[in-house]
């Protein structure tokens, strides 16, 4: 104990009581919560897609427009894309260290997830309502 | 409060280094950890295929015929086979993380069993789902 000549934490860090990411409990917990939800949602979505294999366009569209498959698909998409946004954020924070490149990578991750998420949700809603 | 200033070097330069992967003997638990991350990243890119499929259904029969043509080609099936394997492998890895979060399965024999279960479970689930897919086609 007497040999503590320096700490592994920077002085500013000691004052702030925060890690390099300035927070992260909610990240970890949301990763878990979405993962728990994704277990049944993924199995359900795979089941829905299996039921559509080999069917013609009108049948596929009609089946996906039913409320139950549509709601499961929407939940799967929203939960999955939020989960993958958190996951990719972790990958970026682990491997991209430059201040600018990290900033833009995180921006690109958010942008991609919103674009893909909104596109998929729009498509499912259009299948259901149009 | 403990004195935090290092004697000579700044604190940031005296932090311990992570073990270098290059000098590590590959272990199954380690490979499954890496595979979990790689399959996660692959699924990230794979959402483009999912989006294309959904948008095609929302558009018209012609767009759906195009996406079906590409996805049911040999290359398309190969990519989809990899996509579903990544999905099931990641799903199995997730269950392994649930077990760890409960504070179980972290000791020596159990964690090896879990690593094998992740690998085998993902492959078996993938083969079962593709067998069903070919049966109902």
Count of alpha/pi helices of chain B: 4
Compute the CA-based radius of gyration of chain A. 21 Å
Q: Helical percent range of chain B?
A: over 70%
In total, the number of strands of chain B is 0
How are helices and strands ordered from N to C of chain A? HHHHH
The ordered string of helix (H) and strand (E) elements of chain B is HHHH
Write up what this structure looks like.
The complex is a heterodimer of chains A (about 130) and B (about 140). Chain A is about 75% helix and about 0% strand. Chain A has 5 helices and no strands. The longest helix of chain A is centred in the last third of the chain and has 31 residues, at about 100-130. With about 140 residues, chain B is an all-alpha fold. Helices cover about 75% and strands about 0% of the residues of chain B. Chain B has 4 helices and no strands. Classes of the chains: A mainly alpha (about 130), B mainly alpha (about 140). The interface of A and B includes residues 39 and 81 of A.
Topology diagram in text:
The complex is a heterodimer of chains A (130) and B (137).
Chain A (H helix, E strand, L loop, with lengths): L10 H6 L8 H26 L6 H8 L2 H29 L3 H31 L1
Chain B lengths: L27 H32 L1 H12 L1 H28 L6 H29 L1
Salient structural properties:
heterodimer; A: 130 residues; mainly alpha; 5 helices; B: 137 residues; elongated
Summarize the structure.
With 130 residues, chain A is an all-alpha fold.
């Amino acid at each position: 104990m007497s040999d503590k000549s320096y700490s592994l934490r920077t002085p500013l860090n000691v004052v702030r009581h925060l890690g390099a990411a300035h927070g992260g409990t909610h990240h970890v917990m949301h990763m878990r919560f979405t993962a728990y939800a994704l277990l049944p949602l993924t199995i359900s979505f795979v089941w829905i897609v299996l039921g559509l294999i080999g069917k013609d366009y009108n049948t596929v569209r009609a089946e996906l427009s039913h409320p139950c498959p549509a709601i499961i698909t929407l939940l799967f998409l929203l939960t999955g894309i939020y989960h993958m946004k958190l996951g990719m954020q972790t990958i970026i924070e682990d491997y991209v260290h430059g201040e600018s490149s990290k900033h833009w990578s995180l921006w690109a991750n958010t942008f991609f997830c919103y674009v893909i998420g909104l596109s998929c949700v729009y498509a499912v809603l259009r299948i259901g309502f149009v | 409060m403990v004195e935090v200033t290092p004697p000579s070097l700044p604190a940031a330069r005296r932090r311990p280094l992570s073990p270098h992967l290059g000098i590590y003997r590959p272990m199954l638990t380690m490979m499954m950890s890496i595979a979990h991350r790689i399959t996660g990243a692959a699924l990230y890119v794979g959402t483009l295929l999912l989006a294309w499929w959904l948008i095609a259904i929302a558009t018209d029969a012609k767009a759906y015929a195009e996406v079906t043509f590409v996805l049911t080609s040999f290359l398309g099936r190969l990519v989809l086979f990899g996509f579903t394997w990544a999905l099931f492998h990641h799903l199995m890895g997730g269950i392994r993380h649930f077990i760890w979060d409960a504070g179980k399965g972290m000791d020596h024999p159990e964690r090896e069993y879990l690593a094998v279960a992740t690998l085998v479970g993902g492959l078996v689930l993938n083969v079962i789902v593709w067998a069903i897919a070919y049966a109902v086609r």
